[in-house]
Each structure stands twice: as C-alpha cells, then as structure tokens.
Amino acid sequence: MRRMTASVQKVLRSQRETVGWSNSWAQLHEELGVGTWVGKTLHLTERDRDVLEKAFEREMGEDLRTLDMQQDRIGMAGDVRNEKLSGQPALGSLQRVAMPGGSVVVTGDDGVAVRVPTPSGTVLSVETSRLALDPEVCRRVMIIENGAVINRWWDLLALLPAEWRHETLFCYRGHDQAQGALNAWIKSLPEDIEVGYCGDYDAGGVSIAVNTFLPLVGGERFWMLAPEPSVVMPKNANKPSVYLDQLPMLQTLERSSASSGVQAHLCRLRQQQLAVTQEAMMAFGISLDAFRI
Questions:
Q1: Is the N or C terminus of the chain more exposed, i.e. has fewer CB atoms within 10 Å?
Q2: Hey, is 197 helix, strand or coil?
Q3: Which of 53, 85, 117 is a domain's end point?
Q4: Per the database record, which ranges form the DUF7281 domain (predicted)?
C-alpha cells in the first residue's frame, strides 16, 4: 500500500498524464475505473486524477499531495489512519460477488452452506475457498471486468439480456491473487453452468474474453456480453483514439482467431472504429446481448 500511495502522490503532484504498467496501477484501474490502457501505458485525464485524489483523501483522511511520506511511523500515525498504509494488498484476495434477486452461497467454518442475500446497493466480499454455488438456483456466472461496475451492478441489470438478470452470479474479475483464484474456481464449475464475460467493447475486451476466459470453460459454455448489433453508439460514448491505439491488438486478433463469432465482433470494431468502456455503456444505457464466440 505504501508503494502504491507514493506512486499516486507523484502523479498528483506532477499532474502526470501517463504511467507505466505496474501491479499497483492495474489495481487502481480495476478498482476505481481510472485511466485507459494503451499497451503497457495507462493514460490519465484530469478527471482520473481528481478521482484518485478524492479516493485517497477519503481513505486516509489527509490530502495526499501534501502528505510527507518520508516521516517515521509515529509521525505518519499522527497524520493519517495508520492502517491504511499497512503492507496488505489494496484489494486483497477476496472475491467481490453479487446474486441479483437471490443469495450468494458461502461455506461456513462448520462446512454448512450459508445463503447471504445481496440486494441492490450491496456487494459481498468472500474468500474463494468459501464461495459455493447451488446449480438449482444459479445457472450462470458473469465476470465483470471493471471494479466501478461491480460496485453498481444493479444499474447494469436493465442493460443485460433477460436471462442474465436472474439465476446469475456476478463476479468481479479482480487482480493478481484474487484473479488467479477466480479463474481456478471458474474452471472447476459444473459443466452445466454457463459463463459470461462483460467488459469493455474494444480490442482489449475481446482479447480478454478470447484469451483469458474462453479457454477456462470452452466455447459451448461461454458467452461474451456486448452491445446489441442494432445499437447505434452515441458519439460521446466512443473513444476513437483508444481504437487507433489498440489497432495492433485488433490486427493480431484478426490473424489469430478462426472463430466466425470473434471475427464478426472484430469486423464491427474496425468498421465503426469502436472503443467503448463499461462505464460508458452504463452512462448511455447501451443494451447488451450475449454472443457465442
């Protein structure tokens, strides 16, 4: 946490617009929805820096730009909430999940399954080893790429295909240990459980669907959630500059994928020069459909 805090402090003090890839910045991007990845570089807008500033001030109770990070622990404890600068990972290894209209099944210390409701306005954090699934009431698992979106999953519901609004466990993709544990958990799911991926609609999002999650369960059980073909993308929802930056990735996917389903999405991205984030889909109310790839 200290390394992450120091890195953010440098960005805020110098008003930097780009940072290189690191675990810390990947976590912040996923958790707070800040920045746009272009290759291994995260591009930060003024709004992104404002989000970072407010988030760290809220967590630490101190203006990060003026905080002296070189002082000893006693001095630091007098300025900030000391526990916020502990060595623990920012996101930990907990899975963040929700079950619209139902309950998340968690295994208790005694091995007995406990059902925890997650109504709108709530997200449950649970250790992967305790996350269970009742196939009688949960038929699908949907992986959500962005941390800001899982935090407001109830606003996503109306945009989803009808069958994905219920009997579906929403899981945040996570990062590092949590991401690896989630991938292993998904791979171990019963064969009658379908898996969906809901991420940005751009070359990067398609790449994650194709290269990360599709191989875990196979094409017969996997779906990619993406804008309906009939949807005309609002101009302000799209990021043409990101599309151009991701062209090499798009070209790689075009060469490497033999799937007609994948190629159809790549063709659409190229023809319309699309790069639409999950946040933009929610902000503009862009309806999604489920596609085999």
A1: N
A2: strand
A3: 85
A4: 93-289
